[in-house]
Amino acid sequence: MAVNAKISLIGAGSGEFSLGIVRDLCMTDSMWGTTVSFMDIDEERLDAIHNVASRYTAELGADIQFEKTLDRRESLDGADFVINTAMVGGWRGWDDARAILAKYGYQRRIRLGSFHQFKLFMDIIHDMEELCPDAWYIQSANPVFDGTTLITRESDIKAVGLCHGHHGVRQIARLLGLDPDKVQAQSYGVNHFIWLKKFYYEGRDVYPLLDAWIENEAEAFWAGPDCGISDGMGRKAVDVYKRVGLFPIGDTVTPGGGAKFDVYHRDLETAQRWQEDPHGWMERHIKHVFTAVEKFKEVAADQSTKVTEAYPPKRTLESNVSIIDAIANDKPTVFQVNIRNDGAVPGIADDVAVEVPGLVSAAGIQGIRMEPLPRPILVHTLEEIMRMERNVQTFQSRDRGMLLEMLLLHPETRSPEDAKACLEEILDLPFNADMAEWYQ
Amino acid sequence: MAVNAKISLIGAGSGEFSLGIVRDLCMTDSMWGTTVSFMDIDEERLDAIHNVASRYTAELGADIQFEKTLDRRESLDGADFVINTAMVGGWRGWDDARAILAKYGYQRRIRLGSFHQFKLFMDIIHDMEELCPDAWYIQSANPVFDGTTLITRESDIKAVGLCHGHHGVRQIARLLGLDPDKVQAQSYGVNHFIWLKKFYYEGRDVYPLLDAWIENEAEAFWAGPDCGISDGMGRKAVDVYKRVGLFPIGDTVTPGGGAKFDVYHRDLETAQRWQEDPHGWMERHIKHVFTAVEKFKEVAADQSTKVTEAYPPKRTLESNVSIIDAIANDKPTVFQVNIRNDGAVPGIADDVAVEVPGLVSAAGIQGIRMEPLPRPILVHTLEEIMRMERNVQTFQSRDRGMLLEMLLLHPETRSPEDAKACLEEILDLPFNADMAEWYQ
Asked: How many Å apart are CA B181 and CA A292, to the nearest integer?
């Protein structure tokens, strides 16, 4: 069986991610016949992914077609699935803001909400309403929680947010000596704040095993070479688990999710005791990304490289293609998804995007109804929701006053006068011209 | 017309407040025949209010009866209305905690939630379920927002929270040269975070007048002798109004509500520029309370004083008696009330107590449905709700771990180890014996 689906990949220049899609399509017979439309605003990167992807399918003899375009609307036109992985301007523009922020006494980098990302999300969605109103929108760009909530509030376009953070449970399985592929797990909450609820292996609850590992083996792991800084199974993660009753998964405790539960690294001495180093973790993470980008560039430039050797043909852990397959070919399967809550997690409003297991099929995505989050976790989750609401509603308001509120609430803001002056200087930066226009 | 209602007044020893109830009863013919049962755990204060109240009604020839008791259940037995104004232990017990907190580096006083108040509220409510299940419970003790939410979640006892903060609009009226008694105003939100929505005088919107006053006269007021520190019409209040679009009323911006919007007084210089002094404001407030207590003691001790001269017989601004009158004698009237939301304020969960105008009658209390709060205010309100949820749900959980979360989240907490040690020391204080038992 083959489909003739068109997948529009926005921000395709993030080579390794895009090639992952291609790999997964190649490994999924039922998706052969698909056309992937790569779209990016960076022509060089766009050419690179088109080049590598074409060589990849040729080497494997897979029936996948590719298009490339700098024109988003061309890519969206007639698409069945739209995967958005774009990061507008990366961190570059905000580097210019650092001198201004420092002048006003801010010690850390501040982003005033997610304007540039939100603007792109909504531009894509509005284009989709016109050019491919029945297509699925897959939100693979951050912030997934805020973005999925915004989009499902603003449009009827079918949308789902994806994040691979839930695979954090695989590390737990490995440490317990279990085959990660055989673990049956359910984590839930909101994106970057998810908690391991169900944890089964061959029909048996693994939580007791995890508790025994913590009791008997954790200290040795923490002292050994396999435990990284700010590790997902480190001292902090285990202590948070003890505090709230469910194990935190992925970026719930790691710096990738914003260094929550920061009492473990308020000062250097405490951070060292808990083996935490959020700044070092982020640097390492960024280095990984750069290394991957460099490798991809080299492979693209050297036509003599066998790309299936550089990137062996095995399935990634990303679920984009599997989810598309489940919808396009009606293969009802449960995946980790971010969707409008609508009662899946009791105690959270219907119009907030939750991360839950969901049944995906040609009928769409149906959330699996979970138990209420344990009370300590629910209360923390409400704080995440509040932060998201501030971000989303500030964008929706188009009100410069609401943007100012973000700065006024910042604990490092010295006075209302400072906040007002600082905001205007930041909005005057060339990078923020469209932001200044949005917030009247 | 006269009723034979029994009003149980818990915490009656706060003399001036209780005498206010008596005064209002005396001035309300339709409430004659009422019996007030004063209850307090402080016998001296209890005797004082019983003495003064009896003399008061005798001087006026009013038909109001009084009882006094140290036994709460005796007071509640057969009551039609229960007014709770009790403040457990005041701040005394927590003074003992200050040395401990200082040792762990906390610069300011911290209260770990509202355990002692919540425990009392729920003890009263559970007694009421047994002794007077059809009575109304009037929550006049702080925290009104948290307490009313807790009680309406935990019990079917009819409950309403009252606070006089909404009378802040009277100061605005006076400054604009209007008769406060003729102002038609609606403020709403959650207690200690309410916003002036409707502001009419003789059929005309007064907001334009207020805007003109801000434009032309505010500076002179701020520079003059009538503007107090942290004034409800001060620079901060006006700036917050400019920020969010509705005028903040009462403790929404004043230190009585917890010094919210603290960017106006983060450092001394900024505070002076904005004429803010939360600490001084609180000291002055506490001095007022002590002065009132002293005066009441003197009046009680000196039988030769004419009490109606010391406390002239005019109605207070408190609405307790008027609300009881509206219910007992079915006089449908709109009052400022704190009730379970149930849709009165869109965008806030049903089971959160909101402060809104409500129609009070023999049929109960029906919230007046308000427009959604303006977006900037809603987002701030969500933060208030989150703080309330943490407080209420920690109490409901009876989980010492959740109590620890409060301390772990405090920005001054230096490490998880510190938080754990500090919590245990605080719970070991004799004052907190019942709290230590509650949180297992």
From this structure: 72
SS3 category, A37: strand
Question: Is B197 a domain residue?
Answer: yes
Q: What is the ipTM of this complex?
A: 0.87
Q: Is B399–A376 a contact, with Cβ atoms under 8 angstroms apart?
A: yes
What predicted TM-score, i.e. pTM, was given to this entire model? Answer: 0.92
Centroid of chain to Cα A218: 29
Residues B306 and B196 in one domain: no
**Is A389 a member of any domain?**
no
Which of B94, B90, B157 is closest to B122 using CA atoms? B157
User: In this structure, which amino acid lies at residue B252?
Assistant: T
Catalytic residues of A: 164, 251
Per-position DSSP letters for B19-81, written without gaps between them: HHHHHHHHT-GGGTT-EEEEE-S-HHHHHHHHHHHHHHHHHHT---EEEEES-HHHHHTT-SE
The amino acid at residue A227 is C
- The Cα B63–Cα B168 span in angstroms is 33
CATH number of the domain enclosing B11: 3.90.1820.10
How far apart (Å, rounded) are the C-alpha atoms in residues B296 and B307?
10
DSSP bridge pairs for B205: B200
Write out the two tokens for A89: 């301007």
Q: Tell whether A207 lies on the interface with B, counting CB pairs under 8 A.
A: no
Find, among A49, A41, A64, A44, the residue nearest to A17 by Cα: A49
Please report the DSSP string for A373-404 in residue order.
Answer: PPHHHHHHHHHHHHHHHHHHHHHHHT-HHHHH
Q: Please state, in angstroms and rounded to a whole number, the distance separating the CA atoms of residues A48 and A58.
A: 15
What is the reported pLDDT for B109? 73
Q: Residues B143-184: pLDDT tens digits?
A: 999 999 999 999 999 999 999 999 999 999 999 999 999 999
Decide: A376 and B399 in contact? Cβ < 8 Å: yes
Q: Note whether B397 and A376 are within 8 A (CB).
A: yes
Q: Please give the Cα distance from A113 to A403 (Å, whole number).
A: 8
Query: Which DSSP category does A370 fall into?
Result: P
Convert the pLDDT of each residue in A31-56 to its tens digit.
999 999 999 999 999 999 999 999 99
Which of B386, B390, B412 is best to mutate for the A interface (most A CBs within 10 A)? B386
DSSP per-residue codes, A80-141: SEEEE---TTTTHHHHHHHHHHHHTT--S----TTHHHHHHHHHHHHHHHHH-TTSEEEE-S
What does the pLDDT read at residue A257?
82
Overall average pLDDT of the B384-395 stretch: 96
B385/chain A closest Cα distance in angstroms:
9
Dihedral (C-alpha) B379, B380, B382, B384: value to the nearest 10 degrees?
A: 180
Q: Are B230 and B254 in contact (CB under 8 A)?
A: yes
Cα–Cα distance, B247 to B240 (Å, whole number)? 7
Q: Considering the domain boundaries, does residue B404 fall inside one?
A: no
How far, in Å, CA of B368 to CA of B345, rounded? Answer: 9
B405 touches chain A (CB under 8 A): yes
Q: Which residues 100-159 of A are in CB contact (within 8 Å) with B? A: none
CB contact under 8 A, A405 and B380: yes
Left if phi > 0, otherwise alpha if psi is -120 to 50, otherwise beta: which for A206?
alpha
Taking CA–CA distances from B389, the nearest residue in chain A reads A379
Burial of B304 (0-12, 13-18, 19+ CB in 10 A): exposed
How many structural domains compose chain A? Answer: 2
A411 touches chain B (CB under 8 A): yes
Contact status, residue A193 vs residue A381, Cβ threshold 8 Å: yes
One domain, residues A150 and A235: no
Contact A165, A191 (CB under 8 A): yes
Owning domain of residue B238:
166-276
Angle, helices B400-409 vs B416-427, to 10°: value is 130
Instruction: Write the residue in B267, B379, B415 that is nearest to A390 by C-beta.
Output: B379
